[in-house]
Design goal:
Radius of gyration: 39 Å
Structural class: mainly alpha
Shape: rod-shaped
Largest sheet: 3 strands, antiparallel
Number of strands: 3
Strand order of the largest sheet: 1-2-3
Number of helices: 6
Order of helices and strands: HHHEEEHHH
């Protein structure tokens, strides 16, 4: 047999199977409980997992719908129409009317999407930290009237969210106070109540005169 035949035989030979090793036995329920003991009665409960907030779909306004709330001039100046009153939004020069309109509609859609996400967080009972701050910032953008869309609908949504967030904050404070009270009660030592002794009754008098010397 030549050296090359020896080499081919070595490569083609299957590797020996590894001996079967016995798998470790699964821990018994008692052993598992010993490793992961249950919390003692009265101990503070573990923090609840944060709720998962599903992002709502991105808001999108068609140009046909947005045209009901805007007027666009030939030079790219765009005006927002609210209850028959016009507000100058801005200018998008060197573009068609549709392009100028679409630019300011995207500003509206961005705010509407952020409000929808904030609303989803409130409904999912997410922590209210910075919610009112975010809502205030969005409200200021809508109040500037520098976007094109149904801004009155956004105004109404902002007011509804403001009420919902304040209610959620009150619920969070009440829950925090309840948790604090439970923790204080769990740490307070439980002293046994003192036994109440019956009143002492003096022994009855014999009625004999005391002896004199």
């Amino acid at each position: 047999m030549t050296d090359s035949q020896k080499s081919d035989e070595t490569v083609s030979r299957p590797a020996p199977e590894a001996p079967d090793t016995q798998r470790p036995a699964a821990p018994s329920p008692a052993a598992f409980a010993a490793r992961h003991p249950a919390p003692a009665p009265g101990s503070p409960a573990q923090a609840a997992p944060k709720p998962v907030v599903a992002a709502p779909p991105v808001h999108s306004t068609s140009l046909e719908e947005a045209a009901r709330f805007a007027r666009v001039e030939e030079d790219g100046h765009v005006f927002l129409i609210v209850n028959g009153e016009e507000f100058p939004v801005g200018q998008y020069p060197d573009a068609s009317r549709d392009e100028a309109l679409a630019y300011f509609v995207r500003k509206y859609d961005d705010v509407a999407s952020q409000l929808a996400l904030l609303e989803a967080r409130v409904q999912a009972k997410a922590p209210t930290t910075d919610m009112l701050k975010t809502l205030k910032h969005l409200g200021e953008q809508v109040a500037e009237r520098k976007m094109v869309g149904d801004v009155l609908a956004l105004d109404a949504q902002i007011e509804t969210l403001r009420t919902s967030i304040k209610e959620a904050e009150a619920a969070e404070r009440a829950e925090a106070e309840a948790v604090k009270a439970r923790e204080l009660a769990a740490r307070k030592p439980s002293w046994p109540r003192p036994r109440r002794l019956p009143p002492r009754i003096p022994p009855p008098s014999s009625g004999r005169p005391a002896a004199t010397g």
